[in-house]
Design goal:
The complex is a heterodimer of chains A (about 375) and B (about 200).
Chain A: H1 2-25, E1 26-33, E2 42-48, E3 57-63, E4 69-75, E5 81-84, E6 93-101, E7 104-105, E8 112-114, H2 126-147, H3 158-173, E9 177-180, H4 189-208, E10 212-216, H5 219-235, E11 247-249, H6 254-268, E12 272-276, H7 282-292, E13 296-301, H8 307-313, E14 316-319, H9 321-331, H10 334-363, H11 368-381
Parallel strand pairs in A: 9-10, 9-12, 10-11, 12-13, 13-14
Antiparallel strand pairs in A: 1-2, 2-5, 3-4, 3-6, 6-7, 6-8
Helix pairs in contact in A: 2-10, 3-4, 4-5, 4-9, 6-7, 9-10, 10-11
Chain B: H1 4-22, H2 27-61, H3 69-87, H4 94-125, H5 131-146, H6 149-154, H7 158-193
Helix pairs in contact in B: 1-2, 2-3, 3-4, 5-7
The chains are: A alpha/beta (about 375), B mainly alpha (about 200).
Chain lengths: ~375, ~200
């Protein structure tokens, strides 16, 4: 008797829902141009009535040019959102939702329309654009100051001061200098910074007459490294000392590369090892092997998780920003030093913003205007 | 002229990549540039392969130091390339067999070495030679203790202290490094886009 009542009750509920159809079931079905895109997208959003039984599925339909409807997606009933992409900009598109119960289509929802278009400013990145422009102005200002010959104080970076000593040591011991530019490709800014430093190190090895060995993990990095080292040797007046085979490609495989470089370290026993660029799990394998062969090691990376390994295993470590400062520091060129100064001032700006944000958020718990300041800072520093 | 063309290409490509981040309407330009890079990088794979062969053939030919390793490298390279090209790379083929039974275990072996290297590096780093090293030792000890069941058995608040060390002082330090590095990236990019840094092109002239 009880079972019969439950079944009857379910049938009645389902029957109510069936009779309701898309019009009553789907509330607030809207279509609008997808924000912050290059065009071709329409965002569709809907909610289901809380009073109705959710359908088994919902089919989203788009109206064709000839006025007929065709299905573009079958969606889970509670998904509530779908973006229709790859549409033609400036053309109006119409949509409707068809709920399905037990494989039977019900009355569709009301029709909604929108026109896709491209946006010229990403609204979620305006704050960052303003901050980036400010930083650029600060850095360019100090570069200009450097060009004009203004004396700029740059703090001593031990790891970079040791570059000369490391190359000198290798020359005295008659052993090569090993330069490892990380395991990423040339589209990584740390690899680019590493190539710039490689040019400076190559100039020193050319001057002192030490062999420079550069094993690479990517073919493009190998090509760039060959050109950079060659240019440095030519500039140092030692083109004859440049050995193309010393700048070689090993493998794209992370641990294959680590094994190859470890082999070079053990066989060649370099007196100085530079590890500058992007490193992952292989960082400690390389640094500990380098240490075991008695080389002076200078490492540098902006990967926060790898810095402790380098600090533990290397003689000198360039931490984060110091990697990017290396080229300017080694060259002593006023305009490059100016950019370093600008970089430091920009960092000071961020320190002020962070401090202000912390104070505003804390005071804001009790005082509304401070909360608004905190919210403003949160908005301009947030990037979508 | 030798510098003008690469500098112009760097400037245009750099500006497009900045622009496409802030102006959605220009995203297709940025995507095209990235596709071009992929095409160039694909061709460079042949350069890499040629370099590998050239270097090792050169070593064998002139009986350079440790030349005996070179035939092994060339044989391994040839075996992988030829079996992959002529017999396919599907499961069960010789290429797949060599990859799963040789390449993968060898990679795993190298990764496993990390455990021993971590131990030796930790032994050096955690020696309580001064107050900072002692602080590091104490922090590491608490963090490690907080991550194993015995930590909470000793005192139920050890996992909380461990989490606090990781989430407050450690995270603050990591974020400081990341902010500094981001500033460095911006400055390096500006120097290259505006042609102030030219050493990678072979000089400052």
């Amino acid at each position: 008797m009880m079972k019969t009542l439950v079944v009857l009750s379910l049938l009645l509920t389902a029957g109510g829902a069936l009779a309701q159809g898309g019009e009553g079931l789907i509330e607030c079905f809207t279509a609008q141009d997808a924000p912050n895109d290059a065009g071709g997208g329409i965002d569709l959003v809907w909610t289901l009535s809380l009073d109705a039984v959710p359908p088994d599925s919902i089919v989203l339909e788009r109206k064709d040019g000839d006025g007929g409807w065709h299905s573009i997606a079958a969606l889970a009933p509670l998904s509530g959102r779908k973006t229709d992409n790859e549409l033609e900009n400036g053309v109006e598109y119409s949509y409707r939702l068809v709920p399905y119960y037990g494989g039977i289509a019900q009355e569709p929802s009301a029709e909604v329309s929108a026109v896709p278009g491209k946006q010229w400013i990403h609204s979620g990145r305006v704050g960052m654009l303003v901050i980036l422009t400010l930083i650029c102005i600060i850095i360019m200002y100090f570069i200009e100051q450097g060009k004009r010959g203004k004396e700029l104080f740059i703090r001593r970076i031990a790891g970079l001061t040791a570059v000369e000593d490391a190359v000198g040591r290798a020359t005295e011991m008659g052993r090569p200098v090993l330069y490892i530019p990380g395991i990423m490709d040339m589209d990584d800014i740390q690899t680019i910074a590493s190539m710039v430093i490689l040019g400076r190190v190559a100039a020193r090895t050319a001057e002192y007459g030490s062999p420079l060995v550069v094993p690479t993990c990517r073919s493009v990095v190998m090509s760039v490294a060959q050109e950079v080292v060659k240019a440095s040797y030519i500039q140092a007046g030692r083109p004859d000392a440049f050995i193309k085979e010393n700048i070689s490609y090993l493998t794209d495989d992370q641990f294959g590369y680590a094994a190859g470089v470890d082999g070079i370290m053990v066989r060649e026993r370099p007196a100085a090892i530079f590890m500058l660029g992007t490193f992952y799990a292989e960082s400690l394998i390389l640094a500990e092997t380098g240490r075991s062969v008695g080389a002076i090691q200078i490492a540098g990376t902006a990967m926060p998780s790898q810095i402790p390994f380098f600090v533990a295993a290397c003689d000198y470590t360039l931490i984060g920003e110091e990697l990017f400062a290396a080229s300017a520091y080694l060259s002593k060129e006023p305009k490059l030093l100016g950019s370093l100064r600008g970089q430091d001032v920009a960092k000071l700006f961020f320190m002020v913003v962070i401090t202000l944000g912390v104070i505003a958020a804390t005071v804001g718990e009790a005082w509304e205007p401070a909360a608004r300041v905190a919210e403003f800072l949160r908005t301009i520093t947030n990037v979508e | 002229m030798r510098l003008a063309i690469p500098l112009t290409i760097t400037f245009v490509a750099g500006m497009i990549m900045i622009l496409q981040f802030f102006v959605p309407a220009t995203q297709s330009l940025g995507e095209s540039l990235q596709e071009w890079y992929m095409i160039v990088a694909s061709f460079a794979i042949f350069l890499g392969a040629m370099n590998l062969i050239t270097v090792h053939v050169h070593k064998i030919r002139f009986r350079a130091k440790n030349w005996k390793y070179s035939p092994v490298t060339i044989a391994g390279f040839a075996a992988m390339v030829l079996t992959g090209l002529f017999m396919g790379i599907e499961t069960g083929r010789p290429f797949d067999f060599m990859f799963t039974t040789m390449m993968v275990p060898m990679g795993a072996t190298m990764f496993s070495l990390l455990a021993f290297f971590v131990a030796s590096a930790a032994f050096r780093a955690f020696r309580a030679s001064n107050w900072r090293a002692t602080l590091l030792l104490a922090s590491a000890f608490i963090v490690m203790l907080g991550r194993v069941p015995i930590g909470s058995m000793i005192w139920n608040r050890i996992p909380l202290v461990s989490e606090w060390i990781m989430q407050v002082p450690n995270l603050a330090g990591q974020r400081a490094v990341m902010i500094g590095a981001a500033m460095g990236m911006v400055a390096t990019s500006l120097r290259m886009i505006f042609g102030i840094e030219r050493s990678y092109l072979g000089g400052t002239d």
